[in-house]
Automatic annotation (TrEMBL):
<keyword id="KW-0812">Transmembrane</keyword>
<feature type="compositionally biased region" description="Basic residues">
    <location>
        <begin position="7"/>
        <end position="20"/>
    </location>
</feature>
<protein>
    <recommendedName>
        <fullName>Transmembrane protein</fullName>
    </recommendedName>
</protein>
<keyword id="KW-0472">Membrane</keyword>
<feature type="region of interest" description="Disordered">
    <location>
        <begin position="1"/>
        <end position="20"/>
    </location>
</feature>
<keyword id="KW-1133">Transmembrane helix</keyword>
<feature type="transmembrane region" description="Helical">
    <location>
        <begin position="36"/>
        <end position="58"/>
    </location>
</feature>
């Protein structure tokens, strides 16, 4: 496997994608979207636990 990687030229290896201002979403927008997704997932998780706890108390 290591020999196959050595044979690959530098240009065939996938390069890290750089931010392109006209084509890509701005990194700040992505960071804000990521925070929103994490917040929503945490909220749904806590709501789920609260419903289970409420059912245990009532049932």
């Amino acid at each position: 496997m290591a020999e196959a990687q050595k044979r690959l030229s530098h240009t065939t290896l996938k390069r890290r994608q750089r931010f392109h201002p006209k084509r890509d979403v701005r990194p700040a927008v992505l960071a804000k979207a990521n925070r929103l997704v994490i917040w929503a997932a945490a909220f749904i998780g806590l709501l789920f636990l609260a419903i289970i706890k409420l059912q245990a108390v009532l049932g």
